[in-house]
Amino acid sequence: MIRSRIAGIGMYVPEQVVTNQDLTQYMDTSDEWIQERTGIKERRFAHRTQETTTTMGVEAAKMAIARAGITAQDIDFIVFATLSPDYYFPGCGVLVQRSLRMKEIGALDVRNQCSGFIYALSVADQFIRGGMYKNVLVIGSEKHSFGLDFSTRGRNVSVIFGDGAGAVVLQPTQEAGVGILSTHLHSDGESAEILAMYNPGTHANHWLEQPLAAFDTAEVGEMFMSHAMIDNAQNFPFMDGPAVFKKAVVKFPEVIMEALDVNGYKPSDLKMLIPHQANLRIAQFVQQKLGLSDDQVYNNIQKYGNTTAASVPLALCEAWQEGRVKPGDLVCLAAFGSGFTWASALLKW
Ligand code: UT7
User: Fold this and answer.
1) 276, 279, 299, 317: which one is catalytic?
2) Closest Cα to atom 24, ligand 1: which residue?
3) Most Cβ neighbours (<10 Å): which of 93, 134, 229, 288?
């Protein structure tokens, strides 16, 4: 039986550290509020012009490729997950192909926000299991700092997010009980608008219950992007935080248990749970609900904030670098976010 395994893992975070205290220069917030509600102490922000979502992804990819003991020329396929792409189109995958001077391989972009990396991993896993590819590069990367409202108006969203990237190289293995055992992907679009960035977009206000004023007199171009949207901060992400929180604490345990049940395991069998780093309170709730010890759950949101598609590979990479994930260990990756989408992957390292 062919399964895929993580043959190499890498990460990249920008140099610039932004503390909670730093954010108080721009908005009415406090270190105390942010730490108490989210667990975040600091995050990294990319260099404004020298770094992009793609360049950070490329740095993480270089590390993953080197650790897999191959070269960029050996990669057969790229899957890139992000919600903050360099361009509206084309996607970041082709920019990685160009930056790493790869062969003319396929490059796929995945748009599943916080669940993006696990969705991307699942896609890559199918290509390996099916025998089509031998080396698939999976990247999750975000440059959130370019698209947030840093005034008090946007504080419920902007204090949470940070920049960074993670990447893995997947390869086939026939070693018994090793590799990705299963992946589980879900969505429920009923609440798509409660965590979303509406503009620019082609929605023409079709889905929004309360029409945005910016569209009233607009011509088509104006409906895509207008001065009024910018003036009214409608070009920034919107989030109903408490509503997302309530759903997350239900779906996280559900999708983790799904992965364990399908493979005949119990929470106590887990060496490490790597939850998407959305909010330390969510991770703690999930830990308690599943009866996991502190040693069984990895959190690094304190240092990086919520890095969306990058958060799972960033946490997995650090856990591995610290020796907390070793060969033979049962590891569960799990995520929940905008869409809503949620997902898990169970693997034997
Ligand atoms: O990764 C993608 C998925 N996203 C998530 O999973 C996020 C899930 N949600 C959350 O993590 C939490 O809902 C937040 C951290 C976003 C917010 O925490 P909360 O405990 O749900 O706070 P809240 O939104 O209910 O706001 C409580 C109060 C409000 O003031 P009033 O109305 O009680 O006077 C907010 O205006 O806190 C205020 N507030 C802030 N105060 C200081 C909101 N943001 C801030 C801030 N600093 N940054």
Assistant:
1) 276
2) 241
3) 93
Q: In whole angstroms, what is the distance from residue 185 CA to residue 273 CA?
A: 17
Question: What pLDDT, in 10s, does the model give residues 100-159?
Answer: 999 999 999 999 999 999 999 999 999 999 999 999 999 999 999 999 999 999 999 999
The closest of 78, 76, 105 to 92, measured between CA atoms, is: 78
Instruction: Please report, as a single letter, which amino acid is at residue 232.
Output: N
279 given a catalytic annotation: no
What span, in angstroms and rounded, lies between the C-alpha atoms of 331 and 5?
Answer: 12
Query: Strands 77-81, 136-142: parallel, antiparallel or unpaired by DSSP?
Result: parallel
Residue 306 falls in the annotated catalytic set: yes
- Residues 6 or more apart whose CB falls under 8 angstroms from that of 216 comprise none
Q: What domains does the chain contain, in order, with CATH numbers?
A: 3-173 (3.40.47.10), 179-193+238-348 (3.40.47.10), 198-231 (no CATH)
β-partners of residue 19 are 42
C-beta of residue 274 within 8 angstroms of C-beta of residue 334: yes
State the catalytic residue, choosing from 114, 184, 279, 332.
114
Q: What is each CA distance from 154 to 4, 157, 232, 236, in whole angstroms?
A: 41, 6, 11, 8
CA 231 – CA 183 distance, rounded (Å)? 42
In DSSP notation, 56-67 reads HHHHHHHHHHHH
Q: Using CA atoms, how far apart are residues 99 and 239, in angstroms rounded to an integer?
A: 34
157 CA → ligand 1 middle, Å: 8
Rounded to whole angstroms, how far apart are CA atoms 346 and 349?
A: 10
Helix axes 31-38, 280-290, angle to 10 degrees: 30
Give the global pTM. 0.96
Tell me the pLDDT band of 214, cut-offs 50, 70 and 90.
Answer: very low
> Nearest Cα to 55, choosing from 80, 75, 35, 73?
80
Structure tokens, 175 = 């070693």
- Average pLDDT over the chain reads 95
To the query of whether residue 317 is one of the catalytic residues in this protein, the response is no
